[in-house]
Amino acid sequence: MDEIRMKTETLKQTATARTLERMQWFNEPEQWEVKGSSLTMCVTPRTDYWRISHYGFTVDDAPFLYTMRGGEFEVKVKISGDYKKRFDQAGLMLRIDKENYIKAGIEYADGRHNLSAVVTHHTSDWSIIPLERPVASVWIKAVRRLDAVEVFYSFDDDVYTMMRNAWLQDNTPVMVGMMGACPDGDGFNVTFDGFSVKHLPDLRRLQWLEMDKARNDNTDNK
To answer: What are the residues whose beta carbons fall under 8 Å from the beta carbon of 64, sequence distance 6 or more?
Structure first.
């Protein structure tokens, strides 16, 4: 069993490495490295993703490594960061365009680590879950189903808790990947491990198949 588990883990790491190598940068940082199944980057100073609300400005210049996805999927990654200054953050992002995106992960604010989510549809909102103590790592998972994205967090990659449910236009391709932002600081290091995207069958088609099967069964029984 241990040998099978080791082979499975090696295959996962190889697949992740291939995925990372094929992904594209939006606002590529000066320092980054892909090694095995890990992406490490020094987040570019004075960068962020935010639109208009509360602060009155718009910024769209933080590093984001992404792949394109259509339809429904589950994406997950482990995040470990050296957060230093107010609003230092790292996490997953699902992005349609500059006015429609969701970013979720860890953010340093008010002197503590927070689970953080920003949902933007023309204007941005921000929600946090303060943590009692700093954490070395956190797993963030997002599940896109129909016109909703459910965001979950975990400290052990076993038990996941939902932190946000947000609307995102369905039947629209999205950029999905890993982002870091450093609005106030001089940059910080963050590592993303085990990034994976898993296709999920379209719920509407699954429902259609069930109805189609029921119709065929009724026809056969006549």
So the answer is: 25, 26, 27, 49, 93, 95, 175, 177, 178, 179
